[in-house]
């Protein structure tokens, strides 16, 4: 084996728990509002809507639904991944698949670049309040109008830097997001994100579907 290949192999053999973010799990699955006991593990879940708030960080996003999940294996460590979950809205298909925590962080950190929209609401611990960032773009007077790309701050205005509150919110969304991990018997937890831009008030029924190594379970979140 070539010497330079050793570091790569060593990195590949690192436990998945060292490469993942997530949340500290609660003492047991029963500590979550929704929980299910399967033959090989117990699962807990809590629906947070479009926001998450904790002592260590918080954020609000308009385009994603946030679900907190936790897995407690009965015996040996078990793989735990966002890919084990789907979201069914109002009993309809297709079911939503998770997006990566980095996708959510990008949308929070760069709302104007992520997609053209009037603004994004983000909570970053500023006295428990919410701050709205982003300004509406000018409407095109004709196809390809160059002035439509200029923010409404006025001609010659500098593009503002990403505010710290957005940077903190984006960091929290990425840090708390669940990545593929080997959950120990003591449990593992994290946030799973689903992209959905519809009006939240129209969601009469929200179901979280788990289909993974522990078996299958469905949670009625709303």
Oligomerization state = single chain
As for the number of domains, it is 1
In DSSP terms (H or I, runs of 4 or more residues), the helix count works out at 4
Quantity of strands, as a count: 15
Task: Provide the helix percentage.
Answer: 10-25%
Q: What is the average of the pLDDT values?
A: 79
Name the beta content range. 25-35%
Spell out the helices and strands N to C.
Answer: HEEEEEEEEEHHEEHEEEE
Largest sheet: 5 strands, antiparallel
Shape: globular
Taking Cα atoms only, what radius of gyration do you get, to the nearest Å? 20 Å
Low-confidence stretches: 1-19, 115-136
Structural class, by secondary structure, is: alpha+beta
Largest beta sheet: strand ordering:
1-2-5-13-9
N-to-C CA distance: 55 Å
Strand and helix layout:
Blueprint: H1 5-12, E1 34-37, E2 41-49, E3 51-54, E4 57-60, E5 64-73, E6 78-80, E7 85-89, E8 92-96, E9 98-99, H2 101-109, H3 111-114, E10 120-122, E11 131-133, H4 164-176, E12 181-183, E13 188-195, E14 206-212, E15 215-220
Antiparallel strand pairs: 1-2, 2-5, 3-4, 5-13, 6-12, 7-8, 7-14, 9-13, 10-11, 14-15
Helix pairs in contact: 2-4
Give an overview of the whole structure:
It is a single chain. With 222 residues, the protein is an alpha+beta fold. It has one domain. Helices cover 15% and strands 34% of the residues. The protein is built from four helices and 15 strands. The strands form five sheets. A five-stranded antiparallel beta sheet has the order 1-2-5-13-9. It is globular and about 60 Å long. It starts with a helix and ends with a strand. The relative contact order is 0.27.
């Amino acid at each position: 084996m070539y010497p330079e290949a050793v570091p790569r192999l060593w990195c590949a053999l690192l436990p998945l728990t060292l490469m993942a973010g997530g949340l500290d799990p609660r003492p047991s699955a029963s500590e979550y509002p929704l929980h299910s006991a399967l033959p090989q593990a117990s699962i807990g879940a809590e629906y947070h809507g479009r926001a998450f708030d904790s002592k260590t960080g918080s954020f609000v996003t308009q385009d994603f639904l946030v679900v907190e999940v936790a897995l407690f294996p009965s015996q040996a460590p078990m793989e735990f991944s966002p890919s084990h979950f789907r979201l069914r809205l109002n009993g309809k298909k297709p079911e939503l698949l998770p997006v990566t925590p980095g996708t959510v962080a990008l949308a929070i950190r760069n709302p104007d670049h992520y997609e053209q929209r009037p603004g994004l609401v983000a909570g970053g611990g500023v006295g428990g309040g919410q701050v709205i960032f982003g300004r509406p773009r000018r409407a095109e007077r004709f196809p390809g109008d160059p002035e439509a790309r200029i923010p409404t701050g006025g001609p010659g205005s500098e593009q503002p830097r990403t505010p710290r509150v957005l940077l903190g919110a984006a960091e929290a969304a990425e840090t708390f997001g669940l990545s593929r991990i080997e959950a120990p018997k003591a449990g593992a937890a994290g946030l799973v994100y689903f992209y959905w831009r519809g009006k939240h008030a129209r969601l009469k029924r929200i179901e979280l579907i788990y289909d993974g190594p522990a078996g299958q379970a469905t949670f009625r979140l709303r």
